[in-house]
DNA sequence: CAGTGGTCTAGACCACGAA
DNA sequence: TCGTGGTCTAGACCACTGG
């Protein structure tokens, strides 16, 4: 392996396994600890230490008596754990739906322009409903190359990250800004609200594992019936 | 120890250590692994496993060559990692200040009433400034008993959790709701804003380790100059 | 039963930090 | 140099899962 500095074995093994997992070398389950011991010619604790790190990162998941399985929590769960968009009025039974409005090329949004040099982005505009009631206007922006591929999909009622996922693009980090303002006329019309009701304005930059911007989201939520609920905990929850 | 079921040794040790840490048996540093091995009559890996769990929970912190130290991240850092309140207009140099306005007993706020049976709460009202400009109106509510103790402090320019901390109350979990609305007259006056500018409205319930409500926060932020910035990551960041 | 992960031991040597 | 945590080994037995 060239001149690998002098990383501890368990780290090297962890990296190797992680790489293989992300390259989909394994289907669902990684080899047992005995196999890995042989393969890497190390003791069991070293293997276990490597695996423990991956478990902690949410990449692997152990099942006693069965084996160690690839986890890679779906992004839905991950993002969901942060910004659960919930209805204050407690009408749980409502059906969510996202309707495609338009797709076009546009100039790079401000927020992205600071970081990237590209001048043109793909923009997808959609409206999110709860039953028949419009909830938000969502615009997703993508770099040209990625956008071209995404343009081939049907964007009705799908999560953007599931489309990204099918292209092999995984979201990893995100940065989000939350503020509010008064709606413009078009937003009032689309959301079916009065001009006197403010809207929550959310921007989110999504990054992949290497820190590249893969998606910029720009959303406007009506504030009269909805709010963001955030759970905070020191550990998992 | 009575009839301890049959918990693994490292779990028992972890619990024991955790208990001692929370009871402030140690000052800053826990005994070395050798000492603990002797004390519990177990092997080093068992001790290390117990400690690893506590490190993962953010309760301990290892320093190579020095020892294992009690961490218990200050709440500031913990809460701060979530909702960093930042100025969009990028005036970094501003000085934050929180001015005490009033303290009184009041009926239990709605949000708390759902969970608790108490009928009266202490309410502390303050205004947060950036330099000379008002940023938000913050109201903190406390259960009677706790409120009585807190009433003795000077509430100018201190974080509520630092006062709680000095009473031995540690925050552990939180639940937060973010939405927006138009300001009422009093809020316009206090925040020095026009009636046409919406405000961000944040409610937060803070819980201790046992899940008791220890604080309810109710804040109104002006939206014209400020926004919430949230960083999301799968692991630590 | 066989296979897998879970727990635990005893002992070795390394790497860092402070005196 | 000494004490601390970091890495690693070899081997043992237990507990869960599935055929």
UniProtKB/TrEMBL annotation, chains A, B:
Give the CDD domains listed for this entry.
WHTH_GntR
The keyword Protein transport appears for this protein: no
Q: Which UniProt keywords apply?
A: DNA-binding, Transcription, Transcription regulation
The answer on whether this UniProt entry bears the keyword Ligase reads no
In terms of superkingdom, the source organism counts as Bacteria
One of the protein's GO biological processes = negative regulation of DNA-templated transcription
Q: Which InterPro entries match?
A: Bact_HTH_transcr_reg, Chorismate_lyase_/UTRA_dom_sf, Tscrpt_reg_HTH_GntR, UTRA, WH-like_DNA-bd_sf, WH_DNA-bd_sf
Quote one Gene Ontology molecular function term.
DNA binding
Q: Domain HTH gntR-type: where?
A: 7-73
Record-given protein name: GntR family transcriptional regulator
């Amino acid at each position: 392996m060239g001149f690998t500095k002098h990383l501890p074995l368990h780290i090297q093994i962890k990296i190797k396994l992680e790489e293989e997992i992300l390259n989909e070398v394994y289907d669902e389950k990684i080899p047992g600890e005995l196999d890995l011991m042989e393969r890497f010619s190390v003791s069991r604790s070293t293997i276990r230490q490597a695996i423990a790190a991956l478990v902690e990162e949410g990449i692997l998941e152990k099942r006693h008596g069965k084996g160690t399985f690839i986890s890679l929590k779906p992004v839905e769960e991950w993002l969901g754990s942060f910004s659960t968009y919930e209805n204050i009025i407690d009408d749980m039974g409502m059906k969510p739906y996202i309707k495609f409005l338009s797709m076009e090329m546009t100039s790079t949004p401000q927020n992205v322009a600071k970081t990237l040099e590209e001048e043109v982005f793909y923009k997808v505009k959609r409206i999110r409903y709860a039953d028949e009631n419009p909830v938000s206007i969502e615009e997703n922006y993508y770099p040209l190359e990625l956008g071209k591929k995404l343009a081939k999909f049907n964007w009705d009622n799908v999560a953007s990250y599931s489309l990204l996922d099918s292209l092999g693009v995984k979201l990893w980090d995100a940065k989000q800004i939350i503020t509010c303002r008064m709606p413009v006329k078009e937003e009032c019309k689309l959301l079916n609200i009065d001009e006197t009701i403010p809207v929550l304005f959310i921007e989110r930059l999504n990054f992949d594992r290497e820190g590249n911007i893969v998606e910029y989201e720009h959303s406007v939520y009506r504030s009269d019936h909805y709010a963001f609920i955030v759970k905070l905990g020191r550990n998992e929850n």
